[in-house]
């Protein structure tokens, strides 16, 4: 790797880490706005998405510049391509945080309902996946990336269970139908954020090993739990 390319890849990595931090904060604040019925915090998440979009464009241009100027091959090419994909996933997570914030703004103007499910626990699980994905990226840690893939199965199961519980809650309290549907939307957006965290984890494995993990099942939990 040339010194110039090495320097540019380090810069790209730092930019991706910065974007990941901003996106993580946006998701956490959006969830906080839902739990605390705080429309002002939700509006801050919506307004902050412009910064995320600008950084995403800047990273994409940096990747394209590295490809055009240095024409990297093998491991270096893999690295830059993975950065492009991770950049896109992070931007989409930012959009989903905005979607959750929009639900929070709506819910803050409605009567509060008792939820039949643990939305806060699901939010904690998805935030943990994002933190693990960022840690995996920082250290190119394959074991950490595999943990993200394992965690996604749990999030998907929680989302499916929430769907059933919301159906039951609407039958019992039809006057709260709108609130329950918006809460279910939050669950759906969280489930999608989990999917993007998995994409990032799979790109980390691709960067580290050159293996394409899409459509492949994660390893058994015990094989990664001891690290």
UniProtKB/TrEMBL annotation:
Principal location listed in the UniProt entry: cytoplasm
Superkingdom per UniProt: Bacteria
The entry's keywords: Cytoplasm, Phosphate transport, Transport
Stretches assigned to the PhoU domain: 17-103, 120-204
InterPro entries, per the entry: PhoU (IPR028366), PhoU-like_sf (IPR038078), PhoU_dom (IPR026022)
Record keyword Transport present: yes
Subcellular location: Cytoplasm
Function, in words: Plays a role in the regulation of phosphate uptake.
Family, similarity comment: Belongs to the PhoU family.
Assembly behavior: Homodimer.
Protein name in the entry: Phosphate-specific transport system accessory protein PhoU
Organism phylogeny: Bacteria, Pseudomonadati, Planctomycetota, Phycisphaerae, Phycisphaerales
